[in-house]
Amino acid sequence: MNVSARVPRRLESYVCGRWTPGDKQGVPLLDASTGAAVAFIDSTGIDFAAALAYGREVGGPNLRALSFHERAQMLKSLGQVLMDLKEEFYAESALTGATRADGWVDIEGGIGTMLSYSSKARRELPNTRVLIDGDVELLSKDNSFSAQHILTPLHGIAVHINAFNFPVWGMLEKVAPTLIAGVPSLVKPASQTAYLTELVVRRIIETGILPEGALQLVSGSVGDLLDHVEGQDAVTFTGSARTGRKLKSHPAVVANSVRFTMEADSLNASVLGPDAGQGTEEFDLFVKEVAREMTSKAGQKCTAIRRVIAPRVHVQALVAALGNRLAKTALGNPSDEGVRMGPLASLAQRDEVRERIRDLTVDAEIVSGDPDNVRVLSGDAEKGAFLNPVLLYCDNPFSASAVHDVEAFGPVSTVMPYDGIEEAIALTHKGKGSLAASVFTNDPRIAEEMVIGMAPYHGRILIGNRASAKTSTGHGSPLAGLVHGGPGRAGGGEELGGMRGVKHYMQRTAVQGTPRLLSAVTGRWMEGAGAGDTSVHPFRKSLAELKIGDQLVTATRTVTLEDIEHFAHFTGDTFYAHMDEAAAKANPFFDGRVAHGYLIVSFAAGLFVDPDPGPVLANYGVDNLRFLTPVNPGDTLQVRLTCKEINPRARADHGEVRWDCQVTNQNSAVVAQYDVLTMVAKTFRKPS
To answer: Which keywords fit this entry according to its UniProt record (predicted)?
Structure first.
């Protein structure tokens, strides 16, 4: 049975812990290829104030009761279930006009982003509920008064208002960092493709993995929802700049200083370097990338290339190469074999793009494609929202305005020439701020000048060349670890960016007090907090017994000239400061021969390590190593080792322990300071 022939379903919202239909039948949502009704959408009758309150009062406490690692594990489990259900999502995705490749970016890209956040959070965040932000600020000479910045989850709800082009990725890329931060989400997808978002949310809720109130969905209009946002809430928006500005200036958003992140229209540019003429690998890569960005998701991507900027001497060859490649694009029903580009999301969207193309022709001429003559392999050319790729050329881009102001959100790009790198950079600036840009060059000098000149106007810049061709993710691919957003026209916001995205939903607070009390708040020992138990070597304690502040002060060891020379010959490090007395004295930092820094670290380990089998399983690193005072032959070293931070792993029988290691000389001067990182068993029984 053709999936398009099914009976249209009535979409529901998931609010206040239950699935709720609107009071009316709703507006029909159509198959983008055939025009057949897929679903009906309506949200009238929903109590939006109650939905927001439910998220704050139920979802928030449930999430904040979990640690960062527990929330991350929750997303991992959820992502694994969703990946097993992906074929169901692909079938629904085809109705939106997405090909299998388009659906992969949206569906598996969205789930992959969530899994990536889960992995990064477990690697980069502690297994706590509070984040430490930056170093301790010392506020007194005697260490009696200090300050530490911390990050804690907002006590509100995040409202995510998404665009139609990525109904899965657009939701999950925002929900993932929000949930890891410990903040519940309410998702409002764009109506055109909301049936796919609703299906994914249904499957999420069915898993029972998320705590009650962590995720809600509104299918349909948001009504008076924004009237009820408060100061602890956050709102994110992806869509047109006009709508974004309207939402950002909403009285409740302004009055309550609600955090607002906008990702808006973006006239992204791709620049062909002056070294990348016809016949170079970069020229061919550029043509392929521009064509791919024009046809992927039928050009309905906020990061798609809208302005193609090339050296004037290469423009004619570029237009010909692009025209030939675009003419081979097989347009039709994305479910059919051989189709490489599907329709736009709706007939209204097709009409909108045609109107914008007419606006662009004020400054540019169409050199490839006919927006009014649709040619398809399959699907209904009239009832389906099909549009063949359209390439325009603007010969005088500096005297034009439409090509820098009008976005045709479809398979449409405009080629424009430049004379000199300064002109190329200036043309990218005329977009007034973009999400993404790219430069195709194999010349390091050109790459440097272009990127530095373009960066203030762009959220992300890709440098494309032959060396990265096989591994590059391409111009238009936002990645979980990289910021997604841009200045000016692009909205001035940031999403993703790894843990940067998590921190957007947290409050940074400066906490001042005595080191002992600050350590209790942060779960991290700091200088001046005093020592805990010193009666037992801390390496003899399992995580069940070890406490922050437990400390060891070691015996001493005197460094001899023989030690230094032996270490030099043994390691091969015969740097003159260790081996040549006269040369060392001539060095302004030394007063004669000095010990190697790593000799000091090695001797320190010899002083604090307990050699017998115990709960300490492995040393896996050293952080923040600094050598502060030179060590000369005859100096005597001593170590103070303090348990600084304990980070148990949620699903393992061990955890990480960070130790503060301070090495001093006979004058109590600190000669070395660093953190030792070890794996420690949660429990330990001495072998019989």
So the answer is: Oxidoreductase
Q: Which of 474, 410, 459, 442 is nearest to 272 (CA)?
A: 442
| Sheet-wide strand order for 506-513 | 131-138, 146-153, 506-513
Burial of 670 from C-beta contacts in 10 A (0-12 / 13-18 / 19+)? middle
d(CA 196, CA 34): 17
pLDDT above 80 (res 323): yes
Could you tell me which of 194, 167, 217, 166 has the C-alpha nearest to residue 30?
Answer: 194
Which pLDDT score, from 0 to 100, does residue 336 have?
A: 87
Q: For residue 236, what is the DSSP state?
A: E
Amino acid at residue number 294:
M
The residue written with tokens 């990182």 in the block is: 677
The span from the CA of 548 to the CA of 659, in Å, is: 9
Tokens coding 627 = 């050598």
Confidence of residue 609 (pLDDT cuts 50, 70, 90): very high
The greatest distance separating any two alpha carbons of the chain, rounded to the nearest whole angstrom, comes to 92
Round to whole Å and give the CA distance between 492 and 509.
Answer: 24
What is the DSSP-derived secondary structure letter of residue 56?
A: I
How many angstroms from the chain centroid is the CA of residue 313? 38
Catalytic residues: 263, 302
**Counting beta carbons within 10 angstroms of the beta carbon of residue 273, is it exposed (0 to 12), middle (13 to 18) or buried (19 or more)?**
buried
Residue-wise DSSP of 187-229: EE--GGGHHHHHHHHHHHHHHT-SPTTSEEE--S--TTGGGG-
Measured distance CA(641)–CA(605) in Å, rounded: 10
At 3, the pLDDT band (50, 70, 90 cuts) reads: very low
Output the pTM of the full model. Answer: 0.88
* Mean pLDDT, rounded, for 544-568: 94
Question: Cβ–Cβ contacts within 10 Å for residue 298, how many?
Answer: 34
- Which of 421, 420, 424, 427 minimizes the C-alpha distance to 398? 427
Chain position carrying tokens 């492995």: 618
Closest CA to 411 of 441, 375, 439: 375
Rounded-to-integer distance, Cα 597 and Cα 578, Å: 10
Mean pLDDT of 304-324: 95
Contact status, residue 639 vs residue 605, Cβ threshold 8 Å: no
Residues 6+ apart with CB under 8 A from 334: 33, 94, 97, 98, 99, 100, 102, 103, 342, 343
Q: Are 572 and 664 in contact (CB under 8 A)?
A: no
Per-position DSSP letters for 476-496, written without gaps between them: T---TTSEE--SGGG-S--EE
* Torsional sign, CA 55, 61, 66, 69: positive
> How far separated are the first and last CA of the chain, in Å rounded?
69
Q: Is 156:233 a contact under the CB 8 Å cutoff? A: yes
